[in-house]
Structure formats: structure tokens, C-alpha cells
Amino acid sequence: MRRFEADRMVNRMSDSGLLAVMVLLTGTGVSALFSASYHFGTVAAGDPFYFFNRQIIWIILGSVFSIILSRIPLELIRKLTVPLVVFTIFLNVLTYVPGIGSTSGGAQRWIEIGGNSFQPSELVRVSLVLYVAHILEKKKDRMGDFVNSILPVLIMSVVMTGIVYFQNDFSSAIYVFLLAIIMLFLAGIGWHYISFGTIAVVLVAIPMVLAKPYRMERIRSWLSPMADPSGAGYQLLKSRMALQNGSLLGRGLGQGQIKLGGLPAAHSDFVFAVVGEETGFAGILFILLLFLIFALKGYSVALNSSSCYVRLAAFGLTSSVYFQVLINAAVVCGALPATGIPLPLFSAGGTSTLVTLGIFGLLINFSRYKAKDREVICGG
């Protein structure tokens, strides 16, 4: 009986940190989204609560999804990995079907049914991470065998990357592929493979960038936004202006001006700029600190587990969220060209919210695995 009570206490302690961060980030995110979107909601939909209400619905669905994933047995998650990959590919193929797939901003990323849209490419990062972790754990004793261990992972990574790329989402495609490469490195792949893979990515990425003129335009506007301040450089300049206006403590919640039509995508990809204007450097630091705590919690789940599968999956899932945060913040500050990658739990987007909360549920699930049977660590 005492052993059972002790196990329950360990489980609660494992859950509490990640759960607290999830609640704080979700609450802060939906508050920031309402402030950033109420003007655009009024103009675009005649309802200042339009984006807020939609986000609340997705948060409720995501919370239920998170609870379910936090309780599913690890063995069942692994059994469902391949069906999840097939399902993800199927959904992404549907985006090309007339009458089902829809286009926005030149990208063919959405499934639209009954006026509601869903972005299946968001599932790619989860299904690929779980697949890579599953395969590499099975092959952990044969990491030197390229054909049987590394090649299956590379093939699936290329397939998933291709799915995202042909939806006209170059940045997310590169991001997804790099996730798989990082997981291969963590699993103990040789440095010569990593070097070759990096060179291959660069060689493939260059013609991909050159293939679309607007991608080169993004890079040029990033390097020199003042060359076209009312055109290609407009969004970056307005984003920087918002951050500068925020100074140390900001203008005050709801008092931002840049969201009133001055900053494109203020409620989605550039919500971080609105947060910066209204809460200043202090608010930005607070949000980045929350995400840093999330990352430390997620990576600690990976490091504290003796299971190769949990280590890889927890590391990949944590990175899939945290890297998005770093990329989005870098874009808003002008450290990277515009990518179209949202800020998790802050940017408007139901699919991103659902998937991110699902990732929290999986990490909470994995955090309890350290109390279960031991397995061999990756790399033998």
C-alpha cells in the first residue's frame, strides 16, 4: 500500500510542473491573442471576440486531447505510431483535393469542411518525431548499419518534408527535416553522416529558395528593409517599431497601436510584436522565460528517462515546440527572414493549439515513465 501511495506521489510531482507551465502559457497566450485580434476581428468578421472565441474552443478540445494522451499506455502510443503516420500523410494529401483543400496566402495547407479549417501539416512534426523515436529505439544496437537503421528514418523524413514543402511552406519543411536530423544525432549517428546530411540540406535548400521569387524577396527585405519600406520591408519595420514603442514596461495591456491595422498578421505570426508593444521588454522576457521553463521541463523528461524511446520522443517533441518559439521570436525581432511559423499557444490557429496541447499531454505521459521498467539507453 505504501509503495502504491509513493508511486502516485511521484506521478503527481512529475505531472505538476509541465501542467503548471501549460496552464500559464495557455492563459497568457489567449489573453495576448484577444488583445492583438479584437480590432481585426471587428473589421474582418464584425465581432471583436471572433478569434478569441475560436481559440477558446480549440483550447477546450486541446485540453481534452492532452488529458487523453497523458493517460494512454506507452505501448499503445508506439503501436499507433505507424497508423498515425499514414493518417497524417492521408490528411495532407486531401489538401490538394478540390472542394476539400483550401489556399491562403499562396499556401495549400488547409482542409476546409463546413466553413471550418484544419491544417494537417501541424501533425507532421508529431507523427515524424514519434516515428523516428520508434524506429531508432528498435535499431539502437545497429546505428552503424546505414541501410537498416538510418535509411528508413531518412526516407520518412524526406517524405514528410516533401509533403510540407509542396504545400508551399518552405520554412516549415526545413524545420521538420532538421528535427529528424537532430534526433538522429541524439541517437548516436556518426559525425560523418551528420556532416553529409548538413551539406545535402544546404545544397537542396538553395535551389528551393531560388525556385520561388518571393523567397528571395523575403531575404532581400530582411537584409535591407529600408530598400522598400512601404512594400517588402513594411512588415518587419512595423514589427520593430512595435517592439521599440514597448520600451521596458510597454504601453499597457490593450493599449497597443500597431495592431490597429498597421501590422499585417498582428493576430497570427506577429502576435509577439503586439505583446512587445503592450508589455515591453519585461513582458517579452516573462513569456520567453515561461517557454524556457517548458523546454527545461521537457528536456529533463528526456534526460531522466532510461528508455531510449522516451528520450528521443521527449527531446523531439520539446524541440518541435521550443524551436518554433525561437524562430518566431527571431523573425519578429528581425534576426531571421519571415517564415510563417507561428508562436505556439499565442498565434491564432486552432490546429497549432490542438497539437501543442497534445504535445504537453505526451510529455506529461512520458514524465511518469521514469518510474517504470528500465530499458537500455540509446547508443548502447
Care to describe what's here?
It is built from 13 helices and three strands; from the N terminus they run ααααβββααααααααα. By secondary structure, it is mainly alpha-helical. It has one domain (7-371). A three-stranded antiparallel beta sheet has the order 1-2-3, with helices on one face. α5 runs antiparallel to α6. The longest helix has 44 residues, at 2-45. It is globular, with a radius of gyration of 21 Å. It starts with a helix and ends in a 13-residue tail after the last helix.
Tally the beta strands: 3
- The 3D shape can be described as globular
Q: How do the SSEs run, as a string of H and E? A: HHHHEEEHHHHHHHHH
Estimate nothing, just give the exact number of structural domains.
1
Question: So what's the oligomer here?
Answer: single chain
Indicate the radius of gyration in whole angstroms. 21 Å
**Range of helix content:** 55-70%
How far is the first residue's CA from the last residue's CA? Answer: 35 Å
**Contiguous uncertain segments of 5+ residues:** 1-13, 371-377
Tell me the major beta sheet. 3 strands, antiparallel
Strand residue percentage: under 5%
Count of helical regions: 13
**Sheet with most strands: strand arrangement:** 1-2-3
Q: What is the averaged pLDDT score?
A: 86
Q: Which structural class do the helices and strands define? A: mainly alpha
